[in-house]
Amino acid sequence: MLYVGLEPAGDQVAACLRVEPGVEIVARRKMMTANDVPVRIATSYFRADLFGDTRLAEPEFVQPSLQSALTALGYSFGHAEEHLTARPPTAFERETLELEAGEWIVQVLRASYSAEDTPVHVLETICAANRHIFSIGQVAGYDEF
């Protein structure tokens, strides 16, 4: 884990969580590596007014998953929206992912909403654009694309 705590909501995340930009939200940020090479920064965002006093705001890993914690808090999944952006990295992203000058990142912003349309989880994934592979598996028993 790189960080767990409150931080001000940026414009994109604020829109997804339906809060004003700058409002304090819960952030859970971690980095993933492959063969000791940093390839992905994943940050989960939650509304502090809904989840600030829950285990989602605590620094430990949430077991068995964030989704199970949301379900235990009474939220069932309704739908999600994803936004994909390719752009130059911020200074933090360049340093954390150890990018060379001129390398870009891919940002995937997934906003998940409950069955009642409450924004419950925003996941921002920042990937080094030139060193990331998304592995896709098939559902058992199906050979379809």
Automatic annotation (TrEMBL):
SMART domains: UTRA (SM00866). Coiled coil: none annotated. GO terms for molecular function: DNA binding. Pfam families: UTRA. One of its GO terms (biological process) is negative regulation of DNA-templated transcription. InterPro entries: Bact_HTH_transcr_reg (IPR050679), Chorismate_lyase_/UTRA_dom_sf (IPR028978), UTRA (IPR011663). Residues 3-133 form the UbiC transcription regulator-associated domain. It comes from the Bacteria. This is UbiC transcription regulator-associated domain-containing protein. It comes from Nonomuraea glycinis.
